[in-house]
Amino acid sequence: MLLDLIYIVIGFGLLIWGADRFVIGASSTASILGVPPLLIGLTVVGFATSAPEILVSVSAATQGLSGIAVGNALGSNIANIGLVLGLTALIAPINATHSATLRKEISLLILLTLATMLLFLDNSLDRLDGLILIGGLIIFLGWVTRTGMRLSTSDPLASELTQELTSELPTQLSWKTAGLWLILGLTTLLIGANLLVAGAENLAVRMGISELVIGLTIVAVGTSLPELAVSVISALKGETGIAIGNIIGSNVFNLLAVVGVAGLIHPIQLDPSVLTLHYPVMAVFTLVLLRLAYNPFGTAGLGRITGFCLLAAFFAYQTTLLTGNL
Questions:
Q1: Phi, psi (deg, nearest 5) at residue 258
Q2: What residues contact 128, with CB distance under 8 A and at least 6 apart?
Q3: How confident is the model at residue 74 (pLDDT cuts 50, 70, 90)?
Q4: Residue 41 is part of a domain; what is its CATH number?
Q5: What is the residue range of 31's domain?
């Protein structure tokens, strides 16, 4: 068991470092190509921060470990909202700007969450389902790109994100340096993903728990660490715009890219609890995002009390899973 834990810890470390280098390489390359900062934040950074989840699911799916692949995607979305957003709101209350862009992105994520559930109704995820999800990802990226190109500085969220992203993006990197970080980051992510999956699979066997539970808990939390780091740092700086956009973008990529790629690589027979329990839990956490854009009883946003409640609900869910009470 000790060796399995070592694999998991090293895998997490490589995923975190690799994701950071991959984000720098990808965003720098996009910046050199003349892509506007806002589009980099909405697309490139969103994809790059979801790279750990994607590669872990690819590694798991190629080995037939469907529980880890699906659990990682659903669990990461739960962790992004319960852990990451909850901790962010606890550090710095999020007083969301009434932005049409924010409302559209949150509404789109909720619609995708409900639509994706329809593919799970037969308790399976086949290659056709994977193609549908990847097709949805392509449409989403096209929509985001078109929206980002049309956004004007009159949109408060767009203006805030542009300023924050401009200050965060690395500057004065050459083609060679950007390419080096891109390749090195991707290679490190691949190695980290394989180590993590190997350790997680063996740990599940030794602890007598399912691969799905391991995916929903240990693996999901570990692959959400890059989002946690970005969001906490942003909250400490008082820059919550990046944190919100990071979480929404990551959850969309998890639903479409992570689940879609897993289904394409290896058809999956889902555990019945995915549809009856874990997906509904993810949907409930996702609905909390509505408070960032709509609140008929007051100002839209998330305060410290809501952040604390999100964290409490997240840890209660994780503890219940690991103790075998669900």
A1: -65, -50
A2: none
A3: very high
A4: 1.20.1420.30
A5: 2-322
